[in-house]
Amino acid sequence: MSMTRLIEYDCDDIVDPELICPICHLPFTDPHVAKCGHTFCIGCITFWDEDYCPSPSCEDNWTKVDIKPITAKFVHNMLNRIQVNCKACGQKWLRRDQFELHREQDCPKELIYCKALAYECPWMGFREERLKSSGINDQTVKLLMNVLKNDNNTLETLNLSMNNDLTDACLNYVVEMLEYNQSIRRISFLYCNISMEAQNDFETKISKRKDVSIYFVPKWQRHDAKLSIGEQFVFL
Questions:
Q1: Which of 8, 28, 100, 175 lies at a CB distance of 3.0 to 4.6 Å from 85, suitable for a disulfide?
Q2: What pLDDT score does 2 carry?
Q3: pTM for this structure?
């Protein structure tokens, strides 16, 4: 909610007419001056429907792009010293420049959130409700929040450490699997070579045995048929 809607100007406090906006008829809020010399609240002139100066006594024409902020400190000091009342709680005799501080820290009718909102506390209500319903003061809340923050930081550090350890473990596992696969390939290669050598050696031995066996024919295999010269040689 805007500050203007929550402020009520004290009737007993006489305000210089030169500090009154000709559009809203209230003391200036963020005053800006037009090319013609007339001053307005920036909010009022921004939402003003006309393109020209609204003052009946002004004969100069100007557009909204011609307005400039007033930077003179004495003007802002005079505006800041104006006495105002808080419409929400009824607090009186507040300096206008201290009204925001009143809202942020003291106003019992200000709508606030729990200070543990960062930790997802859903409570929301008027400041006076929190003061009535809670016996814990702000200092205690701050201490508890610091404890929670420290615990949260510890958990985040632990989580980061565990993630790093898990990453290292995964990398080690991948390296071990690669080494294991290389070992399997080497063993398979050696096994194939050994098998080929054994097979060749076996075939060589079988071949030699066949060559020798033709010179030795058992007697029971002899027959009365006519033998060739080679076969006769075997029976000698």
A1: 8
A2: 56
A3: 0.50
